[in-house]
Amino acid sequence: MAHIEFLDETMRDGQQSLWGLRMRAGMALPVSPLIDRTGFRTIDLTGGGMLDVLTRYCQENYWEGLDLLVASMPNTPLRAGLRANANVTFSVSPRALMDLWVRRLCAHGVRSFWIYDVLFGFDNMLRLAKVAKESDAWVAAAVMFALSPVHTDAYYAEKVRVLAASPDVDSILLYDTAGVLEKERLQTLMPGIVAAANGKPIEFHANNLLGQTAKAYLDAVDLGVSVLHTASKPMANGPSVPATETMVRNIELKGHTHNLDTSLFQPVADHFRAVGKAAGFLVDQYAEYDIFSIEHQIPGGMMGTFKAQLAMHNMTDRIGDVLAEVAAVRRELGYPGMATPFSQLVGIQAVLNIVTGQRYGTVPDEVVQYAAGFYGDTVAPIDANVLDRIMGSARAKEVLDNPPPDPDLAELMKQYGTQDEDELILRATVPQADIDKMLAAGPVRRDYPLLSSPELEQMRKLMQVATMPVVELKSAGLTLSLRRDG
What is the separation of C-alpha 150 from the centre of its chain, rounded to a whole number of angstroms? Predict the structure, then answer.
């Protein structure tokens, strides 16, 4: 029997997978102190994508909201995620900007990081780990799992050996974005990872896209994993991670121990379920086993993007063709792991191939950069014919002649016209027009109006069918009158 620790993903991967990163601070603040008191080893809270989405689409000040959330959870280490060579952009960010991003997150109270690079750029990963250690932060080096002929057990064991050898790495995080790991592969994969980790704790994060991750978690515990990533029930499952409530019960039934206060699960779940429904976001998801997912390995959050892109071209009936094309493009591009940015690059190329009717007739700049090695060495060679088409595309020469710049901090401050480091990160990441709108929107709200009730649901239905210019609803506790414009 083992003592199992839990890392909470409710406010990061849960809301990233189900709410598209649109969880504002006020949506979490009413219950974040409860999550803090639950007994989690760590709370995963933030990342570069949230800075982008909150600023551009929610007009919320990222730094102000982060400060409020950090202040509300003083007892538990708070984590941020880092793609080792970029922040927000699908291209490559200056190293000085990445280093500053880590330092500013630490200054705002983050004390734990998970750092990844799908192509395992060790120089960048370990440099950022060292920067995090300047603030005594915990560093989890992520091993992004993917199924392919070249992603062997030995391949992963060697990556773990290099990462675990660094004194700046505290734990190894096995991260399965597509949720494809099951017992048979875990039994051959985990012994090499455990041996290579050299006694450092092993965390496991797997999205439940195939509905099999809860079982994989239990199998992984038997094989040496000691930290499981879970989320509150309404923010779990489907493209998110398994539910804390379910996994804690499973762990107990298997005779393992934990430190969580289970009495706090329900009020947290009730809150996020109510907020999600009021905001029109997904809650209480599930997924069925779909073997085709193993071929394309699309992260769950991308499926909605695909459908939206196809709808723009009146081609929603082609989603099956797109997924088949994703599997083909991934194979041709040397089996990149399907996590940011490569899940997006493979997905966008697949959509372009289907929409234009010409495979690799249109090639995004980032795919050219990938083929040229700007992101690092590919896991397997790119198909020679496909490489010729990419390098012969309309934009290829200009992209190759203009590799991503790498200015130092002083140059960045001069370029963006500010000495304020938080402002610099915003300006280097988000268009100024969006920053101006965010600033004009005023302070961060500390709550979220739960505009949902049986009466309002009935009113929504009435407004969809009513032809009269005025609709009025009265009940014992509510009088509501709505008038149509014009």
Answer: 24
